[in-house]
Structures are given as structure tokens and as C-alpha cells.
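Have a close read of this protein, sequence plus C-alpha cells, and explain what the C-alpha cells say about the fold. Thanks in advance:
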Amino acid sequence: MKQSISVLALWIFASASVAENWPSWRGINENGASASDAPTSFSNEHNLAWKVELPGRGCSTPAVWGKRIFVTSAIDQQDGILAYDWSGKELWRASLGELRPGRGKRVGSSANSSPITDGKHVFIYFKSGNFAALSTSGKVIWKTNIIERYGEDKLWWDQGTSPVFAGGNLVLAVMQTEGSSYLVSLDKKTGKEIWKSPRQYETTRESGDAYTTPHVVDIDGVETIVCWGANRLTGHNAETGELAWEVDGFNPSNEQYWRVIASAAITDNIAAVPFARGNSIAGVKLGASGSGSDWLWKKEDIGTDAVTPIAHEGKFYILKDSGIGRGKVVCLDARTGETLWESTLPRSSKIFYSSPILAKNKLYIPREDGMVFCATVTKDGLTDISENMLQETIIASPVAVNNKLLLRSDQHLFCFEE
């Protein structure tokens, strides 16, 4: 079977000669995995290269290109972005307009969506609808407002989807129960609309709300945008936005309030789709345009609600983030759904919102209270589990590049290295 390949990753590897980049929320391959080493033990006193205080709250994950680190944040009641170098020095900051406060005081913010960069520009999106392109030196190239252009945000909570690159353009997914749902493609240089494709489904109360980020993959030679939300996994042609296929069956009883937060994860043309509010996960084989896709397996005893799985080399790594059994980490074979191993992190009443990453053979798993677990992945499960307490709320996902670990809390940006 043809292996699923991130179009973003292909472009970056072909064009970038710098060391390592983390250009979007889930990294260079959109799968939460990195080839970098990173420190396994760290704290405010140990292996801390630097930390900087951020000007406001935000739950977005930093993006990295070359010598620059980009972070979105509230800045004086404005939507803002800051750039730092690898010494922690602020290079520039920019404000993009009045922010719209986050509804979720513990886990939400006005800046939940993560930036994405192609090395020449950085693109940012906020709950207010503000959407902008800046040069990597901080110059605003264009700015628009998605809500003013396309309609009201009707999500119950703070929007969290991040933009992706597809078809040479910038694509954003809006998926909501009560308002207009669609994919829109914008020209990266101008912000001009290239295409807009409806993605409207009738669902029960709140079950059409999705906070997920799409994937862009090559499926049998077709560049495809894969979206998860409104009880359906869909594939769209990246050039036109046209719906190529859809897979349903994730909510056969039409349950209410089955909004989705955790994104799907993809390896070897197989998507792991978390559903049922953290109680189930399914494996779906992705098909090319017109051929549809097929369910491969379903697990009703494993799931994740807010935390996106890692997909790497034919395996899925899934963290039970809340409820009974929280802290359990499961490794599944992508093709069969077979459980290869299970391990359990030290127990706590706290839950997880940050999506973990795999850096070589090390898992990094932040908990909301600032505890960051690091563990070695073996064929039999996790070993050498270390507990690293930062004493600050962590919702953003970690970043491992250039033998360093970046962690964004609700107060600071941390950089750790051996």
C-alpha cells in the first residue's frame, strides 16, 4: 500500500537547508513525531536554557523555522504574535486587532490556534476571526477577518483549529453545528479566496462542533485534505476543495454533545479517529478520490477526548486524557488495531489537554498542572518515566527540535537543553 506522505513535509525537506524545523502544530510531518533528541530531565533549575514571560494568555503551540520561534499570544487586549531567537531574545512583536476573550478560563484563550510557517511567511488565526500573514521579520503582508467575511462563529467553546498548507495555498476548516461549516483556501501572498467548499451536515446538539485540524496527505497521487468533524471523516481535493469521499458511522445513535476536540492522526494511509468523547477510536483506510475509505478496526475500550494521538511508522500512540483510566498510554498497530503494549503514568486527579510528542524514542507528555512526563518507548512499553514539574498550567503541545525542548505554559515560554 502506498504510504501516506505529508505534502508540507515534502516541500520543506526539498527547500530548506536549515537544521530542523517545526513549522506547524504537530510538526514537520503533521504527526507529532520528531527526529531530534531532547533533555529527559528538566525543571526551572535543571537543564533550563532560558525562559521568557509572555505578555498574555494563549494555548497555541510555537512554530519554529531556522533561527526563529513564533508564538501567538494576547498582547494588551490585542491578538498578537512574538518572534524569539534561540537565546530567548525577543526579535519582534506585532498586534493584529482587538481580541475576543476565551470562554474556557482554564483551558481556553483568544489564541488557541497555532501558527504555521513556510520559512518566508508566518500565518496566524485567532478566535476573533483575525487571520493574517506576516513576513518572518514581522511585517504584516495582509490581514482579514474570517468571521466578517464568512459568518458568525457559533462554536460553544474557543475555536482551536489551525490553518494548513494545501494545493499551494492556505486552507482553514470551520466546522460547527449552528453556523456555516466550510473549507476555504486563501492565496498565501494576498489572502484572496481561491475556493470555498461547504462542509455542512445536520447533527444533534453540539455534535457538529469540531476543534480539530485537518491533515494534508498524498493518497494514490492525489493531494487530499482530510477533515474530522460532524461525525464524519472526509477527503477533499486540495486544488478545488471538492468532496472526494466521506466516512460516517461514528455516531450511529445520534448522541448529543459529541463535539470533537482531538484531531485524527495518520500513518501509512490509515487514520486513527478518536470519537465518543474519549471512549472510542477507529482505524480508517484512506482511499483516493471516488473510491471512498474503509473502516479497518474499532476500539471501544481505548480513546482520547482532547489529546491528539501520535502517528509514526505504522503505529499510533494514544493517551487516555481524562475519566477512568486517565494516564494510560497505548500503542496500536495502525493496520490491525492490535494493542502492542499498554503502560500507565503515575496517577493524579489532574487531566491532560496538551497533545504529546515522540522525539526519537522518547515520549513527552505534559499534564495540565505543569507536570511533564518523559519516558523511553520500548517494544514492551514505557520505561524510565521521569516527572518534571514546572508549576504552571500547560495546554499547548511540546516542540522538540535542534536537541532542545520548547514548552509553552500560560505564563512563559521555556527552552530546555542538556
